[in-house]
Design brief:
two-stranded antiparallel ribbon, 257 residues, 23% helix, alpha+beta, four-stranded antiparallel sheet, elongated
């Protein structure tokens, strides 16, 4: 901003002599209100799990990358493990190169590939670190009494992330990892949980046009399994991009009054 507007000299100097840096030490904030179709999700999962000879909770865990108590399918691929604690080691995909434990398209593997991009785990970690998100979520709405029954109430997640670059962090992860249909060698499928597909309708979603749904691949030996025609389960109901000023900028703005 023009130097002459900072009459009290509260802001840092900018790289050009006639300007001051209003954005120094500031943070960019992304807020999203994400409505979740809980009953639609579980009914769609139950129908497809039956075809695989698996339980709905098993298929849901493969799609998310975690069991409902938070334990990772990397460590517990077939049944729920103990809830993670502060002492639980972080997830590594290096020992699951074929995706037999955690599928390549699982939500957590897309949102944070960790050491899984390419053949060099350390190089992958360095690349992923440039796009990491500092994020938190808070649920809204009353939890359903029955996961498979639509009670007509709206519920979901308030998602917030802060960072130094919306483009390099939030938009990169969303567009090139979560919603990309060719992420990590896959073809024609996006995030099984949060993908922007056609909404759930016609019972289990199979009434939707094929181009409005997405399959989900589960690597297995000798042949992978494919879960067909997943509809949309998450709908963005609102949100925006914000700038959170640093302390000097806050003092400057407060002095304007």
């Amino acid at each position: 901003m023009p130097r002459k507007l900072d009459k009290k000299g509260l802001l840092y100097d900018f790289i050009t002599p006639n300007e001051k840096d209003l954005g120094a030490n500031g943070t960019y904030v992304v807020l999203r209100k994400l409505e979740q179709d809980v009953a639609g999700f579980w009914n769609a999962i139950r129908a497809r799990a039956d075809e695989l000879g698996k339980t709905p909770h098993w298929l849901a865990a493969k799609m998310v990358g975690r069991w409902m108590n938070g334990s990772s399918v990397v460590d517990y691929p077939d049944q729920e493990g103990p809830p993670p604690t502060r002492d639980t080691p972080g997830i590594s995909f290096a020992a699951d190169r074929h995706g037999y434990r955690c599928p390549f398209g699982a939500h957590i593997r897309r949102a944070n590939p960790r050491d899984d991009l390419g053949d060099d785990p350390e190089a992958s970690l360095a690349v992923v670190a440039r796009h990491r998100l500092h994020r938190r979520g808070r649920v809204y709405g009353k939890p359903p009494s029955d996961l498979f029954v639509d009670d007509g109430r709206r519920r979901g997640l308030i998602f917030i992330t802060v960072g130094t670059s919306i483009r390099r962090q939030f938009e990169f992860v969303q567009n090139l990892w979560l919603t990309s249909t060719c992420f990590n060698g896959m073809h024609g499928e996006d995030d099984p949980v949060a993908g922007p597909r056609a909404p759930h309708y016609f019972g289990d979603g199979r009434g939707a046009h094929a181009s409005q749904t997405s399959p989900f691949s589960i690597p297995a030996y000798p042949l992978r399994r494919t879960v067909p025609a997943l509809p949309r389960f998450v709908t963005m109901r609102g949100g925006d991009y914000f700038f959170m000023p640093g302390r000097r900028a806050l003092r400057f703005l407060a002095a304007l009054g």
